Structure formats: structure tokens, C-alpha cells
# Entry
Amino acid sequence: MIYLAWLIPVVPFVSFLCLLWMRKAARSLASWFAVAASAITFGLTLAVFFASFQQGTFTQEWSWLTIGSIDITFGVLLNPLNSLMLLLVSFISFLIHVYSMGYMKGDSRISVYYGYLGLFTSAMLGLVLSPNLLQFYMFWELVGLGSFLLIGFYFYKNSAKQAAKKAFIMTRIGDVGLLIGLILLFWQTNSLRFTDIYTSITAGQVEAGMVTLIAILIFIGAIGKSGQFPLHTWLPDAMEGPTPVSALIHAATMVAAGVYLVAVMYPLYMASAIALTVVACVGAFTAIYAATIGLVQNDIKQVLAYSTISQLGYMMLAMGVLGYTAGVFHLFTHAFFKALLFLAAGSVIHALHTQNIKEMGGLNKKLKVTSFSFLVGALAISGFPLLSGFFSKEEILAAVWADGQYVLFFVALGAAFLTSLYMFRLYFLVFRGEPKKSLDHIQEAPIGMKATMVVLAIFALGIGYVNTPWFGTFLGDWLTEGASFLTGGHHSSPVWIMLAATIVSLGGIALAYYIYEGKKVDQGNWKQSFSGTYRMLSRNYYIDEFYELTFVKGTRGLGMAFHYIEMYVVSGMMDMIQGFFFSIGKTGSKTQNGQTQTYGAVAFLGLVLFMAFYIWKGGY
Amino acid sequence: MPMQPYLIVALILFCIGLFGALTKRNTIIVLICIELMLNAVNLNLIAFSKYGANANISGQVFSLFTITVAAAEVAVGMAILIALYRNKRNVNIDKMNTLKD
Amino acid sequence: MGLLSFLVFSPLIGFIVFCFIPKKEQTFIRNSAVVLHALPLLASGLVLFQFLDHASLAEKINWITFEIGEKVLGLHFELDVDGFSLVLILLTTLIGFLAVITSTWHINKDNRLFYQLMFLLQMGILGVFAADNLFLFFIFFEITLVPMFFLISKWGGTDREEAAFRYVIYNGLGSMILLIGIAAIFVLAGSTNYAEVQHYFAENGNPTLQLGLAFAFLLAFGIKLPIFPFHSWMVKVHVHAPPAVVMIHAGVLLKIGAYGLIKFGVGFFPDAFDSLAILIAVLGLFNLLYGAYLAFVQEDLRSVFAYSSISHMGIVLLGVSALNTAGIQGAIFQSVSHGLIAAMLFFLVGSLLARTNTTLLKKLSGLARLTPLLAGFFLAAALANLGLPGMSGFVSEFTVFLGIFKEMPILAAIGTLGIIMTVVYMLRAILNMTYGTYKSTYGEVQDLKASEVVPAVVLLICIIGIGVYPNAIGHMLQLTIETILGIGG
# Structure
């Protein structure tokens, strides 16, 4: 069974080709076809997962490109980390396929939508299966392509066009970092295979400065993909895509690929303390930075987007403080509850046709399942005790404390507090309180959407128990077993950290209740007295404006400068060369004046000259 | 050497002819000058056939040919000239550059 | 007559047949042009099979011999192919065939003459790649100039005469330098056969002389490639020549520059190129960034693609400057890949022009609504052009950067800026045109017909094929690259 692992990315890709080929003919069947394909993929993944669970690491490779004596391969690799990711991706992708049947019903381009979804799934699975860094990079870019196509799915909207372009360019900037890192690493280790890289790094064959440089370059790739500061600005804009896409790509899978990359290249980071610190600091800063912006957004998807950025920062922080298991664990739990939150938000949008939370309220009466699912998701992400997010967050905090990064510890606590605050602000504003509009025509989502939300809610509730301090750390043990480079293993966390995390989480929820449900604070008054801060937060610290002013304008300016060089210097030179030949031609043509006598005279002069020369040379 | 005077006369004739052919605007004068040059050639041919290093009759035969051809040439040339004159009311050579355009 | 001669002169059959077809038989002319252009395509397929069979394809017919003193000098008709030239021959016949198919839809003036010139052009290009000595190479190189001049000046757009003149002046200049170089080599080595010349310069190295010759080759082929600041003729041609001709021009003709640089420059004068490496790398880097930044501010889709070509040829130069296996292989891959991609882009430009009559970016918007196929292919070609993995552009860019990072890491790191810029300008141009709201200034346009999809699909399959399994041509090139770099040979 395990030999069929290569089929896993192929199935959704074939579905992509078929759906694009028969765009019009397959419209009515497209969703069933795509769901069937993703079900097959999920089934295959399950089979492969259990096979690899028994067999351990498995590799299969074929030659791809020969450059002289260098042979670059492609193939599949299965180890605990990536079989876990494989399962996660194909499971959530399957759920999203099912959910989209309801959400995208009646869209005239539904087969294109499902086709793109298939392309993305295929690329993401290929990325996870990569046995070497180059293949990883290739699928990494293809994942970006899937994201780009789906963000721009509503291509006739100008905002979607801009968002798609921005997403592609911003992630490309990160990708170039990864590409440079990859090439430098290749010339250091003479191989791109992960196992070879691990061996030469742990054996200390690469000098320390180079390791740090490569680690940071690769981290730039992760920054771009995972929406970390300062390359995060594409992720909020990416919410232009259909909501199931946001759930799949921009919450659960693709954006987590950056964290996954750091996890895959972990030996590199363990070899460089500086790189680890960079990762931790960027992660912690992003976590708190995005959380503050999330507080003031009024678009339901924007809040969730900033929440995603913040949570990804959390995972990076965990990675940066040697909390490998904690980071991967949080990636795992986050995928479920964030997908759940997005799907619930999608259900709200599907019912109300608006994303502005100021126009919502009191929805829990009408959208019971949605409201319940959202509550579960919000509790999970806030780290409410005994839900999945609680365990993973607590483990991250413990890892930060154990690594001795006390400043980052308090930053992380602050971010956790803000997380529960903005999540419950959202919950209270959308689902509780008085409705802003008549809710008579509002209907709960169709059964397919409800079912997926319930399934995800169950996972968000219970998935944390795969790795708890009380019932055993199965996940951690399994991951450590597969990654021999990990030392230390599990951190024994002091009880007070768990208590602190609980207090912070409950505090955030209480404050949100106090402000938004209890209406104890006059919000208008509040906005006015802090108008500067408020405006700064709601404009994302003016970072987009800053980029517009510096990079976009700078690029255009340089382009125009070259344009003037082209117009004046280069074409001036061109005209000179052309003019030179033209003037030769002109002068030559002047002698052809049609006067026979002139011709005769010239011919005679020539004769005289020849004679003179003849005489001067004295004969031959 | 008795050949030298002949050659000098021929040279003078040729130069006058050449000068006229290259500078005169009236086509008839140009034609006459061309005749002058041809005659200079004839003179040379005859001089060489009489006093040349390898004197024989063929030089004189050549000059007879030249005279004949020259006569034919003048006939044709004059005919063209008259045709041109009928068209253009002018026989100036510098006006006859219509082939150029 | 050998297979190679048949390949090279097979377009001539078409040329002669066309002399006897009456001008008025429009449809017959179109159909037979397509059929007759399939001839070189088939012949090149045969050549490929022979080559893969390791059969010798070399041909030699004695042509001119003369003696100077004791030396017997000869100029002969010698043909041969190696992996590199075979790949380019296949590219030529494929793109030539597709270009002719494209012209049957878009060319409506003096059809017979047009296809005759196309036949001549095809013959010239095939000869350039199949020639086995410099002299023959030069003759065929010159043959390509003449039909191109008429193709541009007669069937081009608004500024066609100017474009044709610039084409001829610049290329003539390049040819002149090339001829001087070839003459010098002939006098020195007593032969112009590639193998003999390479052998001669490997044994008799006068460094200064070699440097001079290498520089002459760099200049001559640099104009063809083109290298900044000799590029403006090429922009004119891209913008004003008919799209079907630009398919051949951007797809194949520019690659003669890369071919010459690698095969003659690097092949004959490795030491001289080693000392020129920094210069070439800087030129390549400048080409890459200059073209990219200029493409970003262009208003016309065709100029965007023209500057994009300049930028991509910069990558070829970077690969050449690395002077290692990866760099050279990358440069070759880039030549082939850019040939396919540029041909596809200009095929689509032709289809676009036939529908909207303009390529000005500000007049185009939201085409994806009415013409989803055209827009989709444009997007696919753009993605290939910006080096998306899984397509040929990525393989070549990656290989080039792999090579150059080993030799000049700092320069290469600056060069990666070009990778970002490619995305910026390609997406700007393509998304402006296909995404957004539809403008109805050019009426209701029709999407691509089924027959029009064929060339785009063929090119896309080739692009993706190379991208997914680059060893398909990578294996053919190994021996050639070893010969060029003088490893083990």
C-alpha cells in the first residue's frame, strides 16, 4: 500500500485537469466529481498513514535532472511529521470540498473552482511528501499558485485582482529567500535530500556562519508563506477569495507550510542559536502585532485573518525556543479550530451576504449550529481549559519559559489575552445582542455545511488529547521517534504556567463580555479618546501605505528612470549608428546625379590616378 | 623618330575631344567631340601600323572599321537627338537625366 | 543526400512548389503551406530518432580548396548535429510549423510570397544549427537576414519599415564582426570545422589573440541575443513585426546568439571567456534587471514581452558566465524554454490582435469574462515565463542560478531580484488585461476556436513536459556540454 504514496498528489491533479477540460459540460456533476476525488485521496492517505505507522520511514526516488555529475531526484518520503501533515491536509481538504457543495452552489464557474481546489490540494500533498528541498520548493510555489488562483477566483472584482497579485508577489519575495538558501545549502552539502542535509549539518560539516545565513534565508521563505511580519500584508487581503478557500488555504494548510518548513529543516536551526532567536522574535512580534490589529477590524474574515497571522506567529515562537513538538502540535490543533471558525464565518456570510460585523447580531437564535460551532472554535483558540487550543498553547508557553526567554514569555501571554478578547468580541457582536437587521429570511446552512462544521467542532474539542501532560504525549513521542536530531524531548511544565494561561484566557473572555455583551463601556467615547491609536490599528499600522510609498513607488521610479535611459541614451545611440549608415548612403547617392558628363569626368580622373600610380611604381 | 609627331597630334586631338565631351552642354558639340576622340584613336592606329615595332596592315583595317562604326554611331545619335529635340525643344545634355528619377 | 541535407533543404521544396501555384488560390496556398511545413518537422523527427540511435549523421561534401604556400585550405559543405543543436533544430521546426499555422489565420496580403519567405527563413535557421563549420554557419546566418527583412517590412505593423531597417543594420553590423572573426580563425587554424578549430585553439594559445576573438564573438552574438545596449532593434521588431513572424524571431532567431556564444565562444576560447566572465556576468545581470524594470513600465503588451525577452536573455548570459556544467546547461535550457514560451506568448498576442485590434494595456481589461480560454492560456504562458515550477522556465532559471551561485554568489544574489521583478511585471500586464471589469470598447469578442487552441496546447505541453521531466532533454545535452567545456574530451 505504501508504494502507492505517489498516487496521493496525482489523484487531485487529475481531477483538476478533468474539471478544467470539461468546464461547461461538467458543471452539474463537478462538485460530486471533485468530492469523490478528494474522498479517494483521503482514503489513500489513510491507508498510507497506517502503513507508514507500522513500517516507519519510507523513501522512493526517481532521477529528475542530471547536471554533469549532479543528479537531482524527485520522489516521496514518509516519516511521522509528514504523514501527520498528509492526514491533516487531505482530511481538511475533503471537508472543505464537502462544505463548498453548499457554499458555492449555483456559481457558474463551479467546475473551475473545484479544479483550482484540486490543484491546490495536489500541490500541498506533493509538498508534504517531498524527500528533498528542491521538490519541496517546487510544490511550495505551486501551492502559492493555487492560492493565487483561488484568491482571484472572482476575477471581475478589482479588489480580488489586486489581492491575488499581492499574494503572489509577497510570497515570491519570501520564496526567493528560500531559493537562495536552498542553492547555498546545495553547494555546502552537495545534496538536496533532507536526510543528507541532516547528516552533514549535525556532523558539523558546514561552518557556523553559513548555517546561520542559510537558516535565516530559508526562514524568509517561511515568513512569506506564513504571513509573518513584515511580509504578512497579503494574508488579510487574501480574504477576497471564497470563504472555504480561506479556511483551507489561508488558515489550515498553506500558511502553516512556513511552520512546517522550519520543522522540516529543524536540524539547521538547532545548529544556529542566532537563527533560532530570529525565528522566536519574529514569531512573538507577529503574534502580538497581529492580535492588536485583530481587535479593531470590522470585517469578520479580516478578524480571522489577523488571528491566523497571530497564531502562526505563536507557532514560529514555539519553533524558535526549541519547542518543536509544541509548534507542530499547535499547527495541528490550529488547523482544526481555525478551519472551523472560517467555515462558521462562511456560513454567516452565506446566510447574510455581508461580512461587516456591524450589520450582524443576535444570530444565535437563527443559526444554531453555526453559532455553536463558532463558540467551540472561539473557545478552542482562546485556550479555554480542556479544549484543544488549551493544551497546545500551554505547551508553547512552557517551552518559551523553559528556554529562558522571559520577555517573549510575557509577549506570548499578552497575545493569548488579546486572542481571547478579539475572538469573543467577534462572537458577542455577531451571535449575541440585538439583531441590526430583520432576521426573518435568514436560514441555516444546508446539511453538508452543517455536517462539516460539526465534524470540525468535534475535532476542535477533542484533538488536543493526543498530546497532554495527563493522558500521555503520544504525538510528541511519535514525532521525536521519527526525528533523531531532537534532543531533550518533552518539557516538564510547571503547574503555574497552566494556571496563568487559563487566567489570561478567561480574563480575555470576561473583558469581551464586559465590553460587548454587558455594554459597560461606551464604545463611541472610547474610539474618540483613542482616535489616533484606533486609526493606526484599523489601518494595520499604515504598513500597506508604507510599502506603497517605498517599494511600489521605488520600483516604478526605477522603471521610469530606465525608461528615460532607454528613450534618450540608448535610442540616441541607436539613432547615431543608424544616422551614420544613412549619411554614408546619402553622400554616396549625391554623386549619382544623372549627369553623364560627371560620370565621365570621374571615370577619367580615376584613369589618371591609376596611370599616375602606374608610372610612380615604374611599371609592374 | 617620325612616329612622335603623329602621336602628339593624336594626343592633342584626344584631349580637346575629352575636354569638350565632359564640359559642353550642347549635345551636338559633345557628339562632335566624341568623333574627335575617335579620330585621335584612328591616327594612333595608323601611326602604329606604319611605324610600330611590329608594323603591319591590320592597324589600318581597324581604323576603317572605326570610321564605319563612328559613322553609324553618329547617324543613330543624331536620330535620337532629333527625337529628343522634338519632345523637349532642347538638346542640352544636363537636361537629359530623366533616367535617374 | 544525407538526412541532414534533406532536413536543411526540405523547406526549399516548398519554396519551389510555391513558385508554380497561382497567386489567387488563397485557400490552396494556405493549406499547402501547412502541409509543406510539416516536411521539416517530420525530417527533424527522423533526425531525432537517428540521433537517439547513436547513428552518425555527419555529412561532408568537398566544396572549395585552395593552396597558399604549403597549406591546403578548404571550405567544405559539412553538416552535423550534437545534442544542443538538435534541440534547437526541433525547436525551429516545431515553432516554424506552428507559426505557419498561425499565419494562415492572420496574414491576408500576398500570401504566396509570405510563405515563400517563411520557407527561406526556415531553411536558413535549420542550416545555422546543422552546419558543422563556421563558414557554412555564416552563410546560413546571412540567409536568415534577407527573408526576415521582407517579412517585417511588408507584413508588419505601423512602424514596420523602421523596424526592418534597424533589424538589418544591427544584424549586418553583427555579421560584419562575425565575418572578421571567422576569417581570422580560418587563416589561423586553416579550417573552420568546429572540432578542428577547437582542437587548434586548445593547442595553440596566444592569449591576447584569443581574447580578441572571444570579444568579437561576444559582440557579434551579443547583438543577436541581444545584450544591452544593442537591444533596441529587437524591441522594435517584437512590437512591429507580425506576431507569427515574432514567434520565430523571439522563439528561435534570438537563440542563434545563445548558440553561438556557447558553442563558439565558450567552446573555442574557454580561457578567454574565463577572463571575460565577470564582464559577461555583469552584462547579464544588467540585462536581467534592466529588461525587468522596463517591462514593468511599458504600456503596450508587446513591449512588455519584448523587454521580458531581454530580461530572460540576461539569464542566458549569467549561465554562460558561470562557465560550469550547471551554468551552461541552464543557459541551454533557458534558450529552449524561452523559445517555447515566447512563441506561445506571441501566438496569443496574434489571437488577441485579431480580436481586439489593440495590445495597449489601458484599453484591455476583464478579457477572462468573454474569452476564458484565451485568458487562461495567457495566464499559463505568463506563469511559465515567470518561472513557475513544473514548467520549463523554472528548470532553466534554477539551473542557471545553481551554476552562478557557485562562482559569483553576490552577483547571483542581486540577480534573484530579477525573479521577483518577473512576477511583478508579468502579473501586472496579464492581470490588467484578463482580470477586472470587462470594457466593451472592442465589441463582443469571440473566444479561441477549437483549432486555435491546438498550437497553444502543443506549446504548453512542451513547456510542462520539460518542466516536469527535464531529463528528457537533459540527457541529450550531457555529452555536448562536456565537449564544450572540454571535460573528458
Q: What stands out?
A: Residues 31 and 73 of chain B are 9 Å apart (CA to CA). Chain B touches chain A at residues 18, 21-23, 30, 93-94, 96-101 (CB under 8 Å). The two ends of chain B are 53 Å apart (CA to CA).
